[in-house]
Every structure is written in structure tokens, then in C-alpha cells.
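User: Study the chain.
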Amino acid sequence: MRILIVGAGAVGGYFGARLALAGEDVTFVARGAHGEAMRSRGLVLRTPAGELRTPPLRVVDLDAARGPFDLALIAVKWPSLAAVSARLPGLLAGGGLAAPLLNGLDSEDAVAREVGESRVIAAIAYMSAGLSGPGEIETLAPTRAGLAPYRSGQEPRVEAVAALLERAGIPVRRGSSYRAMLWEKMVWNAPFNAICALTGQRAGVVVEQMEDLARAAMLEVIAVARAEGAEIPVGIADAMVALTRAEFPLTEPSMLQDVRAGRETEVELLQGAVVERGRRAGVDTPVLRTLATLVRGLSPRAKTPSDAESGAASDAK
């Protein structure tokens, strides 16, 4: 299987490295010092289970990528997604699939507008990771993937991709409802990204010192999700608090990493999107609305193309 990884930061780099180490034919889209390090000496993955190293990897600019590819894993930030999606029809094989590994609720829709609904499956990454240097990825907790059909009838194709990832050492959670899967991740992402970014603290500190605030924000996300028809149990907030304590206390979410690096945050994709969807559904979200306002006030500099394409950070659930 020919696999294209678009955006080889923490998320795409980790997934692509594991696939390459499993013997798959992988091409990475990356540039800058990180891309050159991958091309010349490969990727180093530092994980809780130990260190993994790949040999030098095939790395190209997006314009230089040559299909056909059977699977495209897209791990750029949202501002780059439209340009990437527009290139996919010329890169995917006739039966090829695209799986966006982005934060937010709308990535699958954006990709499907370019490649067609039948060629998209829903995917998420459950990670606590970041780039520790060019060609170096550090993960602080177990990494998993979530997959679900984007449209009915895709179950066999989802299972094929799940089996591929599991052969590469990435456990996969299969979902039946992609909307519920995306919303479940948002229950963690929207509150913890904002609170960690605003306080400069890791997720474990937030749970220990600001659990009431995080829980109130999570319950707002759940209320909006349920208003949109996603079957999200209220008890998922308890499960996420427990999981954060057990597996993800060291997590520094992408929004915190972006603030520290002076990059534009994903406030509109995360907190802003939930607030707006809540407004349309008649669900008040005062905690998230306040968090969104405060994050906007952090006033980061404008994102450069290299920032957007690196996909340097990821979030855990």
C-alpha cells in the first residue's frame, strides 16, 4: 500500500514513522529543518515504551508528490487544509482513501468536498506529543487512533485501515458514528486546550487544581453535542477526568504549545466552534465563551506556512 502523510509534525510524523517501520511504502510531505532531518537521518520517536528510529525517509513538498496513493493521512493545521484537499484528487488512487487527523468537527466535510464522500473516512488521534527538535518526536502517553465510517457502507474500508495501523503498533478504536467520535474528542479538547494555554499548566495540574472549571466546560460541550444529535453520555466527563489523571497528566495540549511558540491558536476551531454551534442550537455556553474570549486575547502573531504545515503538536483525550 502506498501511503502519503501530509503534515509530518507530531501527529503525522508519528503515524508515518510507525507505518514505515512496519514496512509500508510511505511518502511524507514536510519541509524546513524538520523535513531535511527526516530526509537525511529519519525520525526519532521517544515514547513511554522506549525509543524508535527510522532510516532516512522519503520527504517531498506537496507540489512534488506523485501518486497514486492508496491512503492519505492528513495532519496539517486547519488553515492549510483547503490547499491540501484541492491537491488530493490528483494524488489518490481510484480506490484511495483520505483520512484527516485534525482537531475540530469539520475536516471530513472539507476533504469530501474535494475528493467525494466515498473516499473519506473519519479519523482522530489520541496523543500527547510534540516535536522536541528537527526529526524528533516525543510522546508522553500511549498513542491510539479512532476510526469511523464517514458514510454508510464504509465499514470494510475502515476495518482495512484499522488493521493497517494496528500492524504498525497503533491501537485503533472503531466507532460507528463519526460525529459522536469527533464530539467525544472535543469534550476534552475544547476545555483542556484553553485552560492549559491560559494558565501555562499541563493537563494533570488542571485536573488537580481546576477540575470544577474543566468539568463545567466539558458539560457544556456535551450539551451542545447532544443538541446536535450526537449520543454522548454525560458520564464521559468523569471518564475523561480519570483518564487524564491516569495516562495524560504530563500532556501539554497543542494550544499551549502554540502560545509558547507564538503561533496562531485554534480557538475558532475548538472553543469558538462549540460556542457558535451552541448558539445555533439554543444551548448557552458561558464557560467556553469566556475561555474563548480569553484565548483570543493572547494575541499570537500570524501563522507562517511552515507553522501550519508542520502540525507540530497534538492533543490527548
